[in-house]
Amino acid sequence: MAAKELWIRADRSNDPAVRKDLVIEALESGITTAIVRPEDKDFASLGKLTLIYSDKGKLTDGIALVELRKPADQDAALALAGKAKTVILGTSDWTVIPLENMIARFRGTGTRVFACASDPAQARVYATTLEKGADGIVIDTADGNAVRQFAQNFASVGQVELTTLEVLDARPVEIGDRVCVDTVSVMHPGEGMLIGSQAACLFLVQSESEDNGYVAARPFRVNAGAVHAYVMGPEGKTRYLAELRSGDELVLVDSHGKTRPSCVGRCKIEQRPLILVEAADDQHRYTTILQNAETVKLVGPDGSHSVTSLKKGDKVLAKVEAGGRHFGMKIDETIREV
To answer: What domains can be seen in the chain, in order of their start residue?
Structure first.
């Protein structure tokens, strides 16, 4: 599922202290867009925020808030397709059907649809309605403690399908330029990034989250591979490792295929000895090139494998797909990468 924007609705309470606390809780949870009242302009000093002002239900910045209380309200919302930048749907008792109608109507019009949700379970439904889901979720709760739960849940809602491959060979190749990616997140064993020499197959390369007795663990780091390799980013798009820069968005993936967002803290490109890993499924062979070092590990269904001890028959996990890539975007075409 594609990542969803999270906003906080902090304009309901008449108490400015309550509104401020909600915005602070949202900001500390990584949510940087807030709906507030015109008199809350000083909230901008709390951090790097985008403030949307609500004056008796009318919002700024080309954003419309539609409270769905009756069928006529749905008609009014549908009429905004292509006219408003974003339409936010809010109510306390509506079901999924109105949102389905909005998503279908707004598709391709340039208007985004957001849905207000009072709890994470409701938000998950809205995020997956008609498969695509709403473009974003507006957290609509007076409970500041619930805001962090929204952020935590939506940080891991993505899922990718992983395939088990059988290792055919692992052999040293020439010294080359490899990319070491330090993220802003702490990862656990079995979690890392999807990387590969071919867009059709991205191997799950584990973070340096395991202590081997000689080198301290670096759970924020993925020793990612040679500069030419692809890495999966948000919405399934790929980037070349050599292109990554500080602040770029990343997708972290665990052995169950669960994903969460992160970003690059820094990248280091250094000359290192490399190793080519070749693996296959029932139909195709795939490769990736990694640094030849004990701390570099591929994730398998039963644990991690150091590339220096890989042997024929070992099992590793990868994201396998058909088609090709054009500027990082998946396209349906016949392509052969070797």
So the answer is: 5-155 (3.20.20.70), 163-331 (2.170.16)
How many other C-beta atoms lie within 10 A of the C-beta of residue 254?
21
Q: Quick one: tokens of 42? A: 């000083």
**Helix, strand, coil % in the chain, rounded to nearest 5:** 20, 45, 35
Sequence letter at residue 80: L
Helix (H, G, I), strand (E, B) or coil at 70: coil
pTM: 0.64
- Nearest CA to 85 out of 23, 32, 34, 136 is that of 136
Q: CA triplet 201, 204, 206: central angle to 5 degrees? A: 155
Long-range pairs of 13-20 with CB within 8 A, sequence gap ≥ 24? 13/142, 16/40, 18/142, 19/43, 20/46
* pLDDT tens sequence across 128-186: 776 677 888 999 998 888 888 888 777 655 789 999 999 999 999 999 999 999 999 99
H-run or E-run covering 5: strand 5-9
Neighbours of 283 (CB within 10 A): 6
